[in-house]
Automatic annotation (TrEMBL):
The protein's name in its UniProt record: Large neutral amino acids transporter small subunit 1-like
Gene Ontology molecular function, alphabetical: L-amino acid transmembrane transporter activity; neutral L-amino acid transmembrane transporter activity
Transmembrane helix found in the keyword field: yes
Transmembrane segments: 56-76, 88-110, 173-191, 203-224, 244-266, 278-307, 327-349, 370-391, 397-422, 434-456, 462-480
UniProt similarity note: Belongs to the amino acid-polyamine-organocation (APC) superfamily. L-type amino acid transporter (LAT) (TC 2.A.3.8) family.
Sorted UniProt keywords: Amino-acid transport, Cell membrane, Membrane, Transmembrane, Transmembrane helix, Transport
InterPro entries: AA/rel_permease1 (IPR002293), AminoAcid_Transporter (IPR050598)
Places the protein is found: Cell membrane
Region entry Disordered, spans: 1-33
Organism per entry: Phallusia mammillata
């Protein structure tokens, strides 16, 4: 991994260098005159700047957030919300609360993203406020478990529904092959062009919204037929749970379907006019998702009760079989499309996260470089694609996510606490968006409480997850803080140059404020 240098240690928060850890150095500390660098630069116009382009506008930003959040969750998690809440009315209230909770967190991140207008999301905000060690812990668990395992799970879900559409009973190996092909194709698209990635995201987001609208329309048709007994005032709250533990489980199930509201902040450097488009895209997408989710659940409840959702099949599949008959095969197609779009959006944002981590000296410097042809972080895309493929061969991939699920909310809470600290520590910072202080305070408390409650509800699994997080401590000491032996440093420089040649990647030039 990139060595810690005096320049890194002297990095000034908020106003420091945006690209200070991505270049290779020789053992004597001088910059490496990479063969790959000189050859690659010959292939471009001397007047061109090697920087990632701002290709994400309001529409693309909204599509990215919608595409990441609206995945398989809304087709599966309604069962968890309904069963634990106990009634139709309580279930709808919980979905609305989950949307409001996500909106508070998303608004707080919108202020963070406009106050610190750099890519990197919560990793960068924790780095700026709490220092490199806590930021590295966050980055490490994201790289080694959360992202690749999530991609593997979604890809396997996609494969399951693809096979269901084909009406063929496929062996596990076939599912793994379909999953690998989907990850490989998405990685290829993200390597080729940022514009391709966002175009794919726009297309699949439109397909996702169309799928949810189809379910909502089917629900309206059922209501027109008189099937709305479950929604009458007399029955809507029948069976509501008063068990606090079950309510927490219901909220957790709903929040899982909203995961991803923070991810647009990972690509701030590629957003056009981020002070406007970042908060506008976040607020618009969260509002649309909340309306869609509540409406979809209303549609489900026209023909299903919470007890009916306890079946093994996904709620949407059961709903489709009841309302669409032989045409219910459309539902698995919709789920597969949602999964594909979710992976694409996540690969796009996570590759930028690890790219920024490498630029800050916390990951191998090759991951902090971009292709001179496509101007995309090709090395980071390849790394996350390979790790995702490896996790598909792991039987316990679902358990791994359970182990570290609490880390997600704790990290969001800590980042928002950083926003509150900045309000007092740096009151004169330019803030295009400045929320009432009660908003980030409440959002931080909710995120931290959710993380703590997740730990309490599953102490053994979360304890294992905490052990996985703590593996970052020796890694940080050995590979980031300690000075490397000369021979190891020489090998590291040689390896970096070889990878530069293979990926045709170089260090991004410093982005000027008006670029």
């Amino acid at each position: 991994m990139a060595e810690s240098s005096d320049e890194n240690d002297e990095r000034q928060p908020l106003l420091g260098k945006a690209r200070n850890g991505s270049s290779s150095h020789s053992p004597d500390g001088s910059p490496v005159k990479s063969i790959a660098l000189s050859k690659a630069r010959q292939s471009i116009d001397n007047d061109s700047k090697i920087v990632m382009k701002r290709t994400v506008g309001f529409l693309e930003g909204t599509a990215i957030v919608l595409g990441i959040i609206v995945g398989s969750g809304i087709f599966v998690s309604p069962a968890g919300v309904a069963v634990n809440s106990g009634s139709v009315g309580m279930s709808l209230i919980i979905w609305t609360l989950c949307g409001a909770f996500s909106a508070l967190g998303a608004l707080s991140f919108a202020e963070l993203g406009t106050t610190i207008p750099r890519s990197g999301g919560d990793y960068l905000y924790i780095l700026e406020v709490f220092g490199p060690f806590m930021a590295f812990m966050r980055l490490w668990i994201e790289l080694t478990v959360i992202r690749p395992a999530s991609h593997a799970i979604i890809a396997l879900t996609l494969a399951t529904y693809v096979v269901q559409v084909s009406c063929i009973e496929a062996p596990p190996l076939a599912l793994q092959l379909i999953s690998l092909l989907s990850i490989a194709f998405i990685s290829w698209v993200n390597c080729k062009s940022s514009k391709w990635s966002t175009s794919v995201q726009n297309i699949f987001t439109a397909a996702k919204v169309a799928a949810l609208l189809l379910i909502i329309i089917l629900g309206i048709v059922q209501m027109a037929k008189g099937n709305w007994n479950n929604l009458t005032p007399e029955r809507v709250f029948d069976g509501s749970s008063s068990d606090f533990g079950k309510i927490i489980l219901a909220i957790n199930a709903g929040l899982w379907a909203f995961c991803g509201w923070n991810e647009l902040n990972y690509i701030t450097d590629e957003i056009k006019n981020p002070s406007r488009n970042l908060p506008l895209a976040i607020v618009t997408s969260i509002f649309l998702i909340t309306v869609l989710y509540v409406s979809v659940n209303l549609a489900y409840f026209t023909v299903l009760l919470p007890a009916d959702m306890a079946a093994n099949e996904a709620t949407a599949v059961i709903f489709g079989k009841i309302t669409m008959g032989k045409w219910s095969i459309i539902i698995p197609v919709c789920v597969a499309l949602c999964c594909f779009g979710g992976i694409n959006g996540s690969v796009f944002t996570s590759s930028r996260l690890f790219y920024i981590g490498a630029c800050e000296g916390h990951l191998p410097s090759i991951m902090g470089m971009i292709s001179v042809k496509s101007l995309t972080p090709v090395p980071s895309v390849i790394v996350i694609g390979v790790l995702s493929a490896v996790y598909m061969c792991t039987d316990n991939v679902f358990l791994l996510i359970t182990y570290v699920n609490f880390v997600y909310y704790l990290a969001m809470g800590i980042a928002i606490v950083g926003l509150i600290i900045l309000r007092f520590k740096c009151p004169n910072l330019e803030r295009p968006l400045k929320l009432p202080l009660i908003v980030p305070i409440f959002a931080a408390l909710l995120c931290l409480a959710t993380g703590v409650l997740s730990f309490v509800e599953a102490p053994i699994e979360s304890g294992i997850g905490m052990g996985m997080v703590l593996t970052s401590v020796p890694i940080y000491i050995v590979f980031v803080k300690w000075e490397k032996p000369r021979k190891l440093e020489e090998f590291y420089v040689w390896f970096t140059e070889i990878m530069q040649l293979i990926t045709e990647s170089v260090v991004e030039e410093i982005r000027l404020p008006d670029q």
